[in-house]
Amino acid sequence: MSPRSTPPRIPLEPDEEIEDDAEYLLEGEPFEIVSDHSDQEVASDNEAEMQDVSPLPDDSILLLQKHQESVFCVAVHPSAKYIVSGAQDHTAVIWDATTGVDVFTCTGHEDSVTNVAFSPGDGKFLATGDMAGGVQIWSSDASTPGGWSLHRSLTFSDLLWLKWWRGPTSSNQKAGPLVLLTGSVDGIVSACLVTSRANDDRPLKYLVGPGSAAIGAEIVPSTYATERPYIAVMYSDGDFRVWDLKTEQSVLTATLTPPSQSPLEGDDAMDGEASAGYLCMAAPHSVPGRECIDIAAVGSFEQITIIPCKPPPSDETGSKKLPANKLSCISLESAGTVEALEFSWT
């Protein structure tokens, strides 16, 4: 019971205190009443050592100060001109990456901003997302103060992640389609086509999963630079699916064994989802001139699982089931929970 809910103790007379204490002693055994000195200050054993510890050196080249609460995410503009940060104060701030001056504040979110991302290529758009599911798309606009303006607002279930995909440039040098992907706790992945037209509210595409959280998604590497991308999605319960974005159909599935869960104690035991199931996902980057490897890596407690994700030939109908013997597991004993994964660019 917490101190707030514990009723105050009624003070006893000195003689009553002694009598109560004596009841807990065996009759006939000698005992001594010792004065309580617990109220006296006792120096910590490590106090002298702590006084000798020097502060860590600050090697930063910029100090970005404007947020009023904890910062949860950052991203860098493709040109390296801007940095954006999202925070618990319900805002995202765009900074000049050279001077560290804040140039624009993205407002209007109703919860902590946990996801920020500039669009690939020219970085014309910025997506900011909050924990409650609010997503705002901002466009660079030299005619407005700060150089950015709100382009479109979207609302989803509790948001877990967002990321951009840019289609290939056409033969006449026309930029390919720009799509914003989002994933949420209810297992739904959405795809929003973003254009330069104001108030472009064309309907979104939805990839409806098994109901468990869509913890991550990656464009299948060999399809990234094509006009028909396939999206590999990992769900927290071990369900894995590759989706054809054009048809909104699943073409490849796999069922991973539910992973072990980290032992939780104390307050952590009240938030079991934090360490249960699959938590993160990554895939190799699609680099021009380099062979694409169609795999995905997912992380869980003390384990990384490698999943082949190459889509079946387009002339095959239905969804193909990936056998369990095609999955590779990397054991990380005593490593704890794997909460982030990334492939190198080289």
TrEMBL record:
Source superkingdom: Eukaryota
SMART domains from the xrefs?
WD40
Q: Does the keyword DNA repair apply?
A: no
Q: Which PROSITE patterns match?
A: WD_REPEATS_1 (PS00678), WD_REPEATS_2 (PS50082), WD_REPEATS_REGION (PS50294)
InterPro entries according to UniProt = WD40/YVTN_repeat-like_dom_sf (IPR015943), WD40_repeat_CS (IPR019775), WD40_repeat_dom_sf (IPR036322), WD40_rpt (IPR001680), WD_repeat_multifunction (IPR051179)
The segments carrying the WD repeats are 64-105, 106-139
Q: Give the UniProt keywords, A-Z.
A: Repeat, WD repeat
Q: Transit peptide: present as a keyword of the record?
A: no
User: What is the protein's name according to its record?
Assistant: WD_REPEATS_REGION domain-containing protein
Provide the species name.
Mesocestoides corti
